[in-house]
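FYI - complex with adenosine-5'-triphosphate, inputs then prediction.
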Amino acid sequence: MQGVSIRQAEIAAEQQYVDKVYARLLVMREEAKAMIAAAHERGLERLPAALVERDAMVYHATRQLKSLEAEYEGLVFGRLDQASGEIFYIGRLGVRDADFDTMVIDWRAPVAAAFYQATAEQPMDVVRRRVIRCSGGKVLHVDDELLTPDAVPEGLTVVGDGALMATLARARGPMMRDIVGTIQREQDDAIRAPAEGITEITGGPGTGKTAVALHRAAYLMYRNRRRFNSGVLVVGPSPVFMNYISRVLPSLGEDTVELRALGEVLDGVKATRTDPAEVAVAKGSLRMRKVLLNIMKEAPPGAPSELRIVYSGQVLKLEAHELTKVRKAVHSRRVQPNQARKVAADALLEALWQKASSYSDNRFDRKNFVVDIADRNEFTDFVAAWWPPVLPTQVLGWLGDRERLRKAAKRNLSPAEVEAVAATWADQDAGWSVADVAVLDELRVLLGDPPKQRRAADELDEFDMIAHEVTSWHQREQGQQQLGRADHYDHYSHVIVDEAQDLSPMQWRMLGRRGKYASWTIVGDPVQSSWPDAAEAADAKERALGKVKRRRRFLLRTNYRNSSEIFELAADVVRDVVDPDDLPTAVRSTGLEPELRTVPDVPNQTVAAAKELLDQVDGTVGVIGTMARRAELTSWVADLGERVQAVGSLEAKGMEYDAVVLVEPAELIAESPTGLRALYVALTRATQRLTVVASDNSWRE
Ligand SMILES: Nc1ncnc2c1ncn2[C@@H]1O[C@H](COP(=O)(O)OP(=O)(O)OP(=O)(O)O)[C@@H](O)[C@H]1O
């Protein structure tokens, strides 16, 4: 009883402080709004200097207002009591009172590091670390940890039984939450690592890699906003996953980081479809690049195969084999085909001239000849048809023709691969697959941009020009640069790659192009890899990253997601094929063993299991099967409501649910060459309960 009342007293005391912070926040909001209004008034003077000043003021005030208005789950979440008696409150953003004294320290500030870094061995002057759990402005719970029990001052109470464990046991919602109140030391080291060079974070399922990567993005932006203003890009496996993590950065007050799924990296394409494993392997391998290099040198389908021109009564003819020779010569100049129309026209003129001079004993003048022919419609029409601008998507359409793909593939694809890959590109209505996106991006670079039509001249007057310039500067500063950003932007200052173990070599090339000038954070787990040729992917990754000297690695060892009972079952699946050091330790036991059901009627038993789990957990239930089964699973659970989500094995990557029904594990094993690992991923998605529904027992053998 006494414990409860002590806790209530402590909660009430913290509530008083949090109330003061929220009151101050209200004042700060009003101040920011007043500043924006004043700035706009200043801008009415329409003088360039006033505009610049207006934009600087608006920029700062808007940023301030945005961060003040963000809907924080709890603005204040921590408190440090120092041995010196000093007290610091830690929160999602820094707050000062009217006298400019600190009320709350931003979690990313150096002083706040002790909140995450202090341990009993290295207390960093901290006596008591308190995690304060709030919902909006209401304090719900406090939880303490004593770091220097010998130095506890009189009257300092200690309550709670582990903020981390309490947080981990909470039900999961459909969106990932930030972990700012309970970041662990090994995670904090990775979050606060220097920005330069390459930071690699590896660790098993549930070790917080995604959470760490996102908190690192927020940290980097906070510590050096100007430097990262040219953009931070976070790439993850699927739109389902990007949606799942999309609330984390805004809840940390960051809304300028760009999140893209692998199927959305190329502007203008949004791919969600996945290919069968053997097709994805062929498309993702560097062998595919060789195929593309071959096909782009071929004449486009429908290109004319003969050129006839009459000059001075003489018929000049270039036949198919001669045109092929000219085409080859143009390609040997190594100009991107879409930029090579002029080179091609010149080469044709030269070939025609050779003809003309051989027929005419050099009686023509070359200059006159070239000027005359180059001007003729029949010649320009021929060039347009023979060397048309080519779009990447068109090329993949051509490769839907099995014969054409076989010729371009030479020995780079097996006959079975040619058959399977061509079939996916022949069906133009199916939409692009995720693996196609990297192929299209490669073609974009190989082919070059098609020549653009000139735009009509701008008709801005001088004032408008200045206003335009100042306003776009303002947008850039606001981090809205994506809005006006050119397609295929490659000036990101930092690229974060999640689930990096699954990137194919072609996908590494695609990201390498986006991060030419960037530093990198690369997050992944080799054990969860679905890419069969690890050496090829590793090589492509190194090339994509370029010659960066500074490199640091972090290994996360604690699985915060799964109960130890669930993780044991998952680890058993891969134990024989992986290094035991690559398997993390699950810290939380629930006493609930996974249920393994062998049943004749998989569809009904899946629905029954999902219903049971809905009753047993408060949060989400994932139903996971092979990609081929995904649509079917969705229809089975269609009536069970929003808490149930059906996903295929690849979409399950990175996701987490309170409970999971895993359907037909043997099918996951058979789905791809890395099927065992896919099963390991699927088995490690649940935080509390797992039911496996299988028609036989073979998956356990
Ligand atoms: N320090 C922490 N405090 C509270 N929760 C945490 C902490 N670290 C991780 N978690 C939680 O553990 C779960 C797993 O984290 P996350 O998804 O980032 O792991 P992961 O390493 O990316 O997993 P996977 O490799 O399986 O995708 C999440 O719910 C996350 O919020």
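DSSP finds 27 helices and 21 strands in the chain. The domain at 188-266+488-558 is CATH 3.40.50.300 (Rossmann fold).
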